[in-house]
Amino acid sequence: MSANLSSRVINIADLREMARRRLPPVVFDYLDGGADGELTLRGNCRAFEEVTFRPRQAIAVGECSLKTSVLNFNLAFPAMLAPVGYSRMMHPRGEVAAAGAAGAAGTGYILSTISGHRLEDVRAASTGPVWYQLYLVGGREVAEAALDRAKMAGFSALVVTIDTPVAGMRERDSRNGMKQLLGSSALAKIPYLHHFLAHPSWLAGFLLDGGVPPLANIVVPNKGPMPLMDVGAALAKAVVTWEDLRWLRESWKGPIVVKGVMIGDDARRAVDEGAVAVVVSNHGGRQLDGVAPSLRALPEIVAAVGSQAEVLMDGGIRRGGDIVKAVCLGARAVLIGRAYAYGLAAAGQPGVTRALEILRDDVERTLRLLGCPSVSALNPSYIEVPRNWNVS
Ligand code: FNR
Question: Which run of H or E residues covers position 327?
């Protein structure tokens, strides 16, 4: 499959198209879509188009180093895999396959709380760093049990997502009958069933995998793993506050990363509460629609935290050139979400491997074309941003 993929899949858009063909619409749109009018979803990608390169020509870049470190973990290139909830819907091996591909590519994987596989199995699948992303679904007691397990299993950092006081309004999910399909009424599902029959290869994998499995890492006392159907309501009661961060610092002794920061004040607050890194993120345009593209928010946050914390960013990365632009603007590394999830949905682990290979090769080629010898030598002089971005 892998060799076959390299000839057929030239860029991430090819993986997206393969995913679109393989998945039933309700699953593809869950992965591909954003909140409300999808302004921020589109804006995230467009912001990269507004930044242009300023290359140094006639320079022979010999050995080109893509290496970087994030929280003292060495990465082969400056991109990690973002938490993507319910990856097991995209492919039966879901989170296990994605973590395995990340480790093999020399980078890290962040496991979402909303996972169909046990966190121990995900950790075991990767040779690289694996971090745990926390939502407080089910409350503090449930979270503490998951954190104990994550610690025991060898997760090396905790990522606390703070942009999800409720789930965003994903209009595509409503139109595709997500609620009815996850609900218990067989009758309510009937209008949507033909979508599944039109995607037999996905359907066979899904049925052989036992259908919709419960969430293996949200274990509710006396009830067991939470059914996926209950997550929306549980998320609405699971807002993470700065007080929770104080409590988390007691429960988790390792590094804490705060994800979902969009303004300088929140970045500083996160650092004051003990975060060693922040992720500039609008959740890939899936939460508050109309918020700025992450790339535009990045300079304000880099300026706000200075050298007190590492700054990561995500949102809209579809090419390695986008990664280079984010690093030029001060990101230590980026997280990629849909870019690898399309690969997972298209072809399982080899699809994720192909996505990472494409992005890595893009980064190296971009550096050579820029006349820049290493990721660590990138700086704002290699790009030009629109004047109204107010980048100092
Ligand atoms: C996400 N994201 C996300 N973030 C998080 O903290 N916990 C989660 O469970 C999820 N789940 C999730 C599911 C799906 C299908 C997507 C596409 C995204 C957000 C994710 O971590 C990241 O912030 C965005 O995906 C980045 O944007 P791009 O790279 O997808 O444009």
Answer: helix 320-328
Residue 283 appears among annotated catalytic residues: yes
Cα 380 to middle of ligand 1, angstroms: 27
47 vs 282: CA distance, rounded Å: 13
For residue 72, give the 3-state DSSP assignment: coil
Which CATH number do you get for residue 122? Answer: 3.20.20.70
Would 387 be classed as within a structural domain?
Answer: no
The conformation of residue 127, written as its DSSP 8-state character, comes to S
Ligand 1, residues at Cβ distance < 6 Å: 30-31, 44, 82-85, 112, 114, 133, 161, 259, 281, 283-284, 286, 314-317, 335-339, 341
Structure token pair of residue 184: 């218990």
Model-wide pTM > 0.85: yes
Residue 101 belongs to some domain of the structure:
yes
Q: How many domains does the chain have?
A: 1
Helix (H) or strand (E) segment spanning residue 220:
strand 215-220
pLDDT tens per residue across all 392 residues of the chain: 556 899 999 999 999 999 999 999 999 999 999 999 999 999 999 999 999 999 999 999 999 999 999 999 999 999 999 999 999 999 999 999 999 999 999 999 999 999 999 999 999 999 999 999 999 999 999 999 999 999 999 999 999 999 999 999 999 999 999 999 988 899 999 999 999 999 999 999 999 999 988 999 999 999 999 999 899 889 888 999 999 999 999 999 999 999 999 999 999 999 999 999 999 999 999 999 999 999 999 999 999 999 999 999 999 999 999 999 999 999 999 999 999 999 999 999 999 999 999 999 999 999 999 999 999 999 999 999 999 997 87
- Residue given tokens 């057929």 in the structure block: 8
Q: Is residue 319 part of a domain?
A: yes
Distance CA 217, CA 195 (A): 30
Domain that holds residue 362: 2-379
Structure tokens at 7: 């000839």
Ligand 1 atom with minimal separation from the 110 CA = 21
Q: Which of 16, 122, 282, 286 to mutate to test the pocket of ligand 1 (most atoms within 8 A of CB)?
A: 286
> How far, in Å, from the CA of 285 to the mean position of ligand 1?
9
CA 311–ligand 1 middle distance (angstroms):
17
Tell whether 385 is covered by a domain.
Answer: no
